[in-house]
Write a structure and sequence with these properties.
The chain is mostly helical. It contains four helices and no strands. It is elongated.
């Protein structure tokens, strides 16, 4: 009986660790997206010349990225609170952010691939460990 309890406790601890990781990475990806959006709105010289954008121009892309960043931070706060809605919202927002940064990989490759990798890990963490029930 003690072995089953300790195994359950170990699984819960692992789930909590992954959820804290996912929330902090959602917050980090949101912060990086906000920085990216602000830079796109203010200093277009930061970006690679002759880059094409999915949605019209650099300023439009900056607003889209800024809004996604704010929503990622909201999702991070929700995941930390333990909400199941926030778990699914976090998966959706991380997926949307990953698609957005993957679309802009030709403009700034290292930055985009770094945020894309963070988003993939967040989706894994929320999908795998987000539904684990915690006992008191």
């Amino acid at each position: 009986m003690a072995t089953a309890t300790s195994a359950t406790q170990a699984e819960e601890d692992k789930a909590v660790g992954w959820l804290v990781f996912a929330a902090s990475m959602l917050g980090l990806a949101g912060f990086l997206s906000i920085i990216d959006g602000i830079m796109a709105l203010s200093r277009s010289k930061f970006f690679v010349a002759n880059a094409t954008y999915t949605f019209s121009d650099l300023r439009t892309w900056g607003w889209i990225t800024l809004i996604i960043g704010v929503l990622l931070i909201v999702a991070a706060m929700g995941v930390l609170s333990g909400s199941q809605f926030a778990r699914w919202f976090g998966i959706f927002m991380a997926g949307l952010n990953a698609i957005g940064f993957f679309a802009s990989v030709q403009a700034y490759p290292f930055w985009a691939l770094m945020v894309f990798a963070i988003d993939v890990l967040v989706i894994y963490a929320l999908a795998t460990y987000g539904g684990v029930k915690r006992t008191a």
